[in-house]
Every structure is written in structure tokens, then in C-alpha cells.
Design a protein that fits this description.
The chain is an alpha/beta fold. It has two domains: about 150 residues, Rossmann fold (3-Layer(aba) Sandwich); about 80 residues, Orthogonal Bundle (DNA polymerase, domain 1). Helices cover about 50% and strands about 10% of the residues. The protein contains ten helices and six strands, in the order E-H-H-H-H-H-E-H-E-H-H-E-H-E-E-H. It has a six-stranded parallel beta sheet, with helices on both faces. Helix 2 crosses helix 3, helix 3 crosses helix 4 and helix 5 packs parallel to helix 10.
């Protein structure tokens, strides 16, 4: 289990951890595929997305904000399977983030965790996209760090460098920070490089493969693992 009393702040990935980005992406891609009579399963579409999206992020940093990353990702998916992607298609996919649902336990768990911790978002989206998601999550975060602010996409270092730089203003020491995320590739690998302890919210614990995120480049072992945010919040309450 573990003793969480040593921590005073939690930094969160959002999409995949708090917001069900895989369902959101799957729904938006399936809508486009159906309109193009594309014979690709939702699982195939998610695999293509996972292979392409992070490449676009790294190639086009910092020129593209996240809706444009999504638009370019769809264009490349279309090219891969020889399917038409109009500019309206690309814009619609880029604008789909506000439609992505929160996991059913996110809002309640965040409200509970807010009673004990400062809460920070460390996200690969832009401010406008996150604002729409934040309205669904229903909690006020103490700091919000986005890709459009730092000019880069995780797992590149700028998000974490800005996170550490933000701690003094929050009255939190680096040893009092715990990172909470789903993606081993985007979050847990870079957290490990910085010696930042992390909690793996393994949203895909009952599914095969990494889903919409690339596989980690090496072996990574988060300090704690929970199948949901609710179970993590419960553990914090029990241990604390």
C-alpha cells in the first residue's frame, strides 16, 4: 500500500487518467470512418492513432497546438488507409476534445483528494481544450501546465521542468510531490528519469496492449499501481 502522508501535492496527467481520451478518440475516429465507409475496426483506428499522434507531436513541436496535432494525425491516418480526409474532417477531429468524457470516478475522487493535496495538471493539450474538460471534472486545480504553455509535448522534459519550477509558489517541496498518471510512455518514464515517485492509474488493467498510447521505450516501475482513481483516493484515505 504505502504511506502518502509525506506528500502535499499531486501532479496529474489528464487525458487517459482523468478524461477517457481513448473512448473520445475512438468515438471521433469511428464517426469519420463510418462517413467514409472505411472497413477498419475501432481497435485498428486506435492502434493507428497511437502510432501517429506522438510522432506528430515530436515532429511539429512547438508549431502546432493540440487541435492541430489531432487534425494532422487524422490526415496521416487517412493517408495510411487511402481514405479521404477533408479539412472539415480534420477540424472536427481537432475540435473533439471537449466531447471526450471523464471517467466515472474522476470528479468525486478529485474532490476528495483536493481536501488533502495541492492539485496540478500536467497535460499535452492547449488551454482552451483543457478548460472544456476541467468544467466536466469540476475541481479547481492549483496549477495547470499545458503543452501550449511550455512549447513541447510529453515525454519531452519541459512539462516536468515547469512543474518543478512551480512548486515554490505552491509552498511545496520537491520531495512532497507525487505524480499520478496512466501513460507509462508519456508520464511514468519521464517521472522516473527525474526521480519523481509516481502512481500508475492503470485504466487498461483488464485490456490487452497499450491502447491509444505508445508502449514505453524501456522498463518502468511506478511505485504504486491502482486500477482506478477511486481506489487510489480510497487508499490515501485509509493510509492517511
Amino acid at each position: 500500500m504505502g504511506d502518502f502522508d509525506q506528500f502535499r501535492a499531486l501532479s496529474f496527467d489528464c487525458y487517459g487518467t482523468l478524461i477517457d481520451w481513448e473512448t473520445g478518440v475512438r468515438t471521433a475516429l469511428s464517426r469519420w470512418a463510418a462517413a467514409r465507409d472505411l472497413a477498419a475496426s475501432p481497435d485498428e483506428l486506435i492502434v493507428w492513432f497511437s502510432e501517429i499522434e506522438s510522432v506528430v507531436e515530436q515532429e511539429r513541436t512547438p508549431a502546432l497546438v493540440y487541435p492541430e496535432v489531432l487534425a494532422e494525425t487524422l490526415r496521416r491516418i487517412g493517408a495510411r488507409c487511402a481514405a479521404v480526409v477533408t479539412e472539415d474532417d480534420a477540424r472536427a477531429f481537432g475540435a473533439s476534445v471537449p466531447e471526450w468524457p471523464a471517467f466515472s470516478d474522476s470528479a468525486d475522487a478529485l474532490v476528495w483528494l483536493k481536501k488533502r493535496f495541492r492539485l496540478v495538471i500536467v497535460s499535452n493539450v492547449d488551454e482552451a481544450s483543457f478548460a472544456a474538460s476541467n468544467a466536466v471534472l469540476g475541481v479547481e486545480f492549483d496549477r495547470i501546465i499545458t503543452a501550449s504553455e511550455v512549447g513541447a509535448y510529453k515525454p519531452s522534459p519541459p512539462h516536468f521542468e515547469e512543474l518543478f519550477a512551480s512548486l515554490p509558489a505552491l509552498g511545496v517541496g520537491r520531495s512532497e510531490l507525487l505524480h499520478v498518471a496512466q501513460s507509462l510512455f508519456h508520464d511514468h518514464e519521464p517521472a522516473a528519469r527525474y526521480g519523481l515517485p509516481s502512481v500508475w492509474i492503470d485504466r487498461r488493467h483488464d485490456l490487452k496492449g497499450p491502447g491509444a498510447t505508445p508502449s514505453p521505450t524501456g522498463s518502468v516501475q511506478p511505485r504504486w499501481r491502482f486500477s482506478s482513481l477511486a481506489s487510489f483516493a480510497e487508499a490515501v484515505d485509509v493510509v492517511g
